[in-house]
Amino acid sequence: QVQLAESGGGLVQAGGSLRLSCAASGRTFSSYFMGWFRQAPGKERESVAAVSWRGGSTYYADSVKGRFTISRDNAKNKVYLQMNSLKPEDTAVYYCAAVPSYKKITGWDDRATYDYWGQGTQVTVSS
Fold first, then answer.
1. What is the C-alpha to C-alpha distance for residues 83 and 73, in angstroms, rounded to an integer?
2. How many degrees, rounded to 5, is the angle at CA 77 between CA 75 and CA 79?
3. Over the stretch 33-62, which tens digit does the pLDDT of each residue have?
4. How far, in Å, CA of 120 to CA of 15, rounded?
5. I need a surface site. Which of 22, 48, 52, 126 has the fewest CB within 10 A?
6. Angle at 42 between CA 118 and CA 126, to 5 degrees
């Protein structure tokens, strides 16, 4: 079991940067594969990025490649999403998600892969 809490959202102008954080409870954080998703009003929740258990592998949606960077610090039980060159279309509520290591990862970008979700943090990018 794990509880997740996002922070770091806010209002930023287009071209600016934000760093989101996801703090996880428990002592087995390194056993969870982690992802970031986002959801804009009236739209489905979509994948943004994911990172493997030790941070050695990362995955990104085409829409954010080259602009966003996902990372994790297992000693701090945290996952980060560094967002640069932000665009108005990045405006959404951003969620972190976790899946335990015993579960086979069949799709990093599939919502159904993940068992645990945070409450979300709002990111608003103005033009």
1. 17
2. 110
3. 999 999 999 999 999 999 999 999 999 999
4. 22
5. 126
6. 80
SS (H, E, C) the chain: CCCEEEECCEEEECCCCEEEEEEECCCCHHHEEEEEEEECCCCCCEEEEEECCCCCCEEECCCCCCCEEEEEECCCCEEEEEECCCCHHHCEEEEEEEEECCCCCCCCCCHHHCCEECCCEEEEEEC
pLDDT at residue 26 is higher than 90: no
**With 90 as the cut, is the pLDDT of residue 30 above it?**
yes
What is the residue whose two structure tokens read 């967002």? 83
From CA 26, how far away is CA 14, in angstroms rounded? Answer: 36
Q: Are 58 and 51 in contact (CB under 8 A)?
A: yes
